[in-house]
Amino acid sequence: MASATDESLPNIQFGIMGCAEIAKKITRAIALAPNASIIAVASRDAEKARRFIASNALPEGTRAHGSYEALIEDEGVEAVYIPLPTKLHVLWAVAAAAKGKHVLLEKPTAVNASDLDKILAACEHNRVQFMDGTMWMHHPRTARMKEVLSDPGLIGPIQLIHSSCSFSATPEFLENNIRIRPDLDSLGALGDLGWYCIRAILWAVDYQLPSSATALPAVHSNNAGVLLACAASLHWDDGKVATFHCSFLSNTSMDISVHGASGSLQLTDFGIPYREDSASFELTTGAHFRELHIGWSKTPEEVLVATYLPQEALMVQEFARLVRLIRSSGGHPDPKWPGISRKTQLVMDAVKRSIDLGFKSVTM
Amino acid sequence: MASATDESLPNIQFGIMGCAEIAKKITRAIALAPNASIIAVASRDAEKARRFIASNALPEGTRAHGSYEALIEDEGVEAVYIPLPTKLHVLWAVAAAAKGKHVLLEKPTAVNASDLDKILAACEHNRVQFMDGTMWMHHPRTARMKEVLSDPGLIGPIQLIHSSCSFSATPEFLENNIRIRPDLDSLGALGDLGWYCIRAILWAVDYQLPSSATALPAVHSNNAGVLLACAASLHWDDGKVATFHCSFLSNTSMDISVHGASGSLQLTDFGIPYREDSASFELTTGAHFRELHIGWSKTPEEVLVATYLPQEALMVQEFARLVRLIRSSGGHPDPKWPGISRKTQLVMDAVKRSIDLGFKSVTM
């Protein structure tokens, strides 16, 4: 029996649902992934889908659909990539799953966990794979960092995590972008950037949910009430604490630092590495102050990790690998990725609720 | 008239009040500073003072006093360095000032702002210079970073500051050290390490006090109720937020990151530089994601700053310079340093109160 990684197996056939800017990146990623291909693109306007096909150099026969409905009715499409505005996720992800399409869904996965649960239930019921589009999870640097965090001799029990994700949005973005429109993405910076912070924090603690989340009184919203910046602290019963800040009003940042009892790990480009071919992080372990405290016994070590494919192509490859496994063996979807998405969404919900409650602590 | 920096002027004559470990570092710093000398050392035991003089290679004639009282009665002593346990600061700093001695006081300056105010009032009344022992303030890297923060084209309005200061204390430290004994230093990790975080945060915002301080529910205390670790968030009315974490239970860390609207500044050894002859920080300014978000337009720049003297010697030099100015011109003490100490102490008090109030927000 052929294994799911067998190169002779046919590629997973993707349909792209919507021609958002991010869809260009995933289109390139699918082209780079060795086990995936695009066979169809949908937009609410077939002409727009055709233009997307042409400008992204997709193969001749790629089908242009003038509706999302047509895409999920396309029998050749095995998996859909959905970069639609967040509010539309539940509608189209559920519809795609109902048609037996595997779902690669852009983050944030939904406007709340209740909506996400509908998506996950549909995927489970229809035995299709679900994965969210958090690309950095698939970079080999992430796996290397997890090895470091798991080695009791290097970091030790985690005490403090801090993350910041931000960019300085243009006036045009702040006026018109879907990520700040309440009808399309009510979570704003929390959904777009806080998602990364929350995911990174959960990733660092092996997805152990915090016992409480408390938003900090440092919120910026636009006139429609959509978050442009916010911050929160997360707490675990063992005294571990995480803080994060996400903002459309600050400089470009993608920081995470993890401090344990005996070492720390830090990087400033975790979500999107500075360059595509390799990425690094700083590791300090067992450092102490020299006698008289006139210096340190050691300086941070830079750990460099090369990658043969960009992280988004590795994400597509992993998703397609799981889909192939289901296709070839008739097996169940891998529950790991839906589980991680759900926990991220639950923490995001708790932070949002804390903001809505005037920064009260929300028990999880 | 001779200027205070004139090398022909006699050195400021220091007395060291107490033979704590940190006193060795300052003894070396005074030896390195070109305008200061040690002429006396006091301990509650004259023999201990004599041993300190011998083991730190102080000059033959250095006087050993068997009481702090004797030191402040020593007419040759112009300035005292006080590394005593925090609870004793108010007693001995006030007594030294009353005898006309200038006061270089180890941090935390007092167990609360009310005690510090007594010290500052005594210094002001007796026209003696006050400065706390926060050494990193005097490193040329700090001045260079302040230039960067003040340049509107580099960082822009500050949005987020995060700081972590910690070390992993030995069991012996956690059992016996004065910094965890309620009768000697009731502030524990907040006083010893949180002091650095708070100072760094205030320094970054040009000492604008936050409007509120809120401790996070991430406190570790010993059996006597002394803080071994804590965390807090500070808030300004313009939405700026700072978070910090200080701990005796975590790896060695001295991080600060400052994120502004257009750039960021980060370093992981702000309190004690990794090495003595130079120190660096990372500056990112005007970075954005490249097209398709497959990388960044620029990576952080490392800014390296050399120093001809260790930061603690520069601190002593600056303190002695101010004392010389008073001595030569009969002028007033420089109010800058007492003012900075007081603001640091006020924020520390607010964080402590927030902890005592069960993590309620404390308005400043």
UniProtKB/TrEMBL annotation, chains A, B:
Coiled coil: none
Span of domain GFO/IDH/MocA-like oxidoreductase: 145-265
Highest taxon in the source lineage: Eukaryota
InterPro entries, per the entry: Gfo/Idh/MocA-like_OxRdtase_N, GFO_IDH_MocA-like_dom, NAD(P)-bd_dom_sf
Entry-linked Pfam families: GFO_IDH_MocA, GFO_IDH_MocA_C3
SUPFAM superfamilies: Glyceraldehyde-3-phosphate dehydrogenase-like, C-terminal domain (SSF55347), NAD(P)-binding Rossmann-fold domains (SSF51735)
Molecular function terms from GO: nucleotide binding
Gfo/Idh/MocA-like oxidoreductase N-terminal domain sequence ranges: 12-131
Family classification: Belongs to the Gfo/Idh/MocA family.
PANTHER family named in the record: NAD(P)-BINDING ROSSMANN-FOLD SUPERFAMILY PROTEIN, PTHR46368
Name used for this protein in its record: Gfo/Idh/MocA-like oxidoreductase N-terminal domain-containing protein
